[in-house]
Write a structure and sequence with these properties.
Radius of gyration of chain B: 17 Å
Structural class of chain B: mainly alpha
Number of helices of chain A: 6
Structural class of chain A: mainly alpha
Largest interface: A-B, 30 and 49 residues
Number of helices of chain B: 8
Shape of chain B: globular
Shape of chain A: rod-shaped
Distance between the termini of chain B: 40 Å
Helix content of chain B: over 70%
Number of strands of chain B: 0
Strand content of chain A: under 5%
Oligomer: heterodimer
Number of strands of chain A: 0
Helix content of chain A: 55-70%
Mean pLDDT of chain B: 84
Chain lengths: 139, 178
């Protein structure tokens, strides 16, 4: 009986033969103990080469949450405008909360020009008006 | 059990269990493959982690093929780049591990066999080593290896054949296999 070459047995074990050659070798192995032992030897070598244990430090990296989609530019613009508007409104409100010094127009006129009633004395004015006007009341 | 691709989708949504499943299923095989290609366990770990992270961060157009295949393709390319950068791989004799489930005598035999197997694989030409590791540790078909490496399928089979022939011969010479 002709034995199968070692190269053919390696190809058989690796499964890289065509169907016809594969069938021929399978038939032969079923009856030839010597070739079967040779094929087992190749299988053993392949198994060792394919099952080398390597010490693995199984330190899992932290899960990255990358699925948050980036905000669309239109939404970014809208959000920016909204924030800007709110900020402006808030600042406006806060500046309005400090009451400005308001001098009624009539009182101011009296302080400067004197009362309309024709009195010579300067009317009592307790409002803050520019001092230069108070120091030289107009008769 | 949840399918790998489902795990990928869940992990992308922040599901820690899915992420752990993916890691447990594939990390070790990726470390083995990249360690053998680069000759460095540290690089193997780095590239295995990088591959898994990229699995979640990259847009994957289709889910054809297995997740393992996708991962090992990334890992292989990273390892190849590293090997090219370094020029020459270093020894990986330190990659051996003791299986505590075995008896001491069996441990010695197993370690010896694996140490020699690592040396034999490392001694192969790069093109044969790549095909062998992609086939045995990357879960790739011959067609996939052909696409990854960019050579015809016949060349892939031929390289694997010569790699296994040389390894078998050396393992026999050293008495690891009969």
């Amino acid at each position: 009986m002709n034995h199968i070459e070692n190269d053919r047995l390696i190809q058989f074990v690796l499964g890289i033969l065509d169907e016809q050659d594969n069938a021929i070798i399978s038939d032969h192995l079923s009856t030839c103990e010597s070739c079967r032992a040779e094929a087992k030897s190749v299988e053993q070598a392949v198994r060792i080469m394919g099952s080398i244990e390597i010490p693995v430090n199984a330190k899992r990296p932290a899960l990255i949450h990358n699925q948050r989609k980036p905000m669309h530019s239109v939404y970014k613009l809208a959000a920016g405008l909204a924030v800007g508007f709110l900020l402006g409104y808030t600042l406006g409100q806060s500046s309005n909360s400090v009451p400005p010094t308001v001098v009624p127009q009539r009182i101011m006129h009296e302080a400067i020009q004197g009362p309309f009633s024709g009195h010579n004395s300067c009317p009592p004015v307790d409002l803050k008006v520019p001092g230069e006007y108070l120091q030289s009341p107009v008769r | 059990m949840i399918d790998d691709w489902e795990c990928v989708e869940l992990a992308r949504q922040g599901n820690e269990t899915a992420w752990r499943n993916l890691f447990d299923r594939h990390f070790q095989a990726l470390v083995r493959m990249t360690s053998l290609i680069t000759g460095s366990i540290d690089s193997g770990h780095d590239f295995a982690q990088e591959s898994l992270v990229r699995l979640l961060t990259r847009n994957i157009a289709h889910h054809n093929g297995s997740v393992r295949s996708y991962l090992s393709t990334i890992a292989y390319r990273l390892a190849l780049k590293e090997r090219t950068r370094r020029g020459k791989s270093v020894s990986t004799e330190s990659v051996l591990i003791i299986d505590s489930a075995l008896t001491p005598l069996d441990q010695i035999i197993k370690i010896e066999a694996e140490r020699i197997a690592v040396q034999v694989i490392q001694s192969l030409p790069d093109e044969q080593k790549d095909v062998l590791t992609l086939r045995f540790y990357g879960d790739h078909s011959y067609e996939e290896i052909s696409l990854i490496i960019g050579v015809p399928i016949g060349t892939v089979k031929s390289r694997l054949f010569y790699a296994v022939k040389k390894c078998t011969q050396q393992l026999r010479e050293r008495g690891i296999v009969k």
